[in-house]
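User: structure tokens for this one?
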Amino acid sequence: MYYTTMSELVSIQRIDKLRAASRDIVRELGFMQKGLAGTALSPSAVHTIIELGYGTVTNASDLSYLLQLEKSSVSRLVQRLADDGLIEAKTNPADRRSREIGLTKEGKALLKSLEDFGRRQIRSAFEHLAKDDLTKVETGLTLFAKALRGEKSRVFDSSAIEFRQGYYPGVIASVVGLHASYYASNFGFGAIFERKVAAEMSEFMGRIESSVNTTFSAYIGETLLGSVSLDGEDLEDGVSHLRWFIVSPESQGMGVGKLLLEKATSFVDTAAFDRTRLWTFKGLDAARHLYEKYGFELVHEERGKQWGTEVVEQEFERKRK
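Assistant:
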């Protein structure tokens, strides 16, 4: 094989090196075996149990999109897991024509076993690595996964995204679910955090009809991609509170967060708020980049436990231009 330039040679070598490493990961994690993660289940079945447990998906259509499987294949998969007593289907209270799927008690017990198995597997692989090497692995794998999702996003029809304002049936549960699953898996937040988000957002929705309060949510069909709320009543006069900004892991890279913050900042400027504040914590770098892009500045940080886990809490503020 002949190469016209050195850059082309390096590019091909790098690509092949990444492909080889990916094959090694697939083999070592057991994806080539008959069962996965110490079970007799297929990889797609294991993924289904995990994603249902995290609340990433709630119906067969979302599962088909996430796993990139034909709907007929997902239908058979869901039926097998239901026959095994691991998942169950219920009528969606917000739309009685559709059905939601979730884990049974046995399915939740299996999820715990899968999580324990996966954590032991990764801990065993990493226990001899230096801290700096662990950070490199974490960063590299995260970027690699993001790049692969980005490829999927680029072929996604962004015109299918629908932005809804205010209350819609199911929005509270969906936003709480996204927060709970994301912060539990990435930062170890637990029941205190989930209860806090659920209680405070439910209280806020009781005031949503006020002209100074609103919620912007991005959907594809009935699947929530992301959401942000503006509360103009819980802080002092002239100050809006930006709350519950979240983008689902599957839709990151699609520009959903950017569009939501554009709508949020446009709302507070039109409503003539002097300032907008938000509270978050150190480590959410992608979100911080967006906040700063839209005029928010860090004004205070300190260690705290208001979300149930000790973190470096941060307060950002944006002044009206």
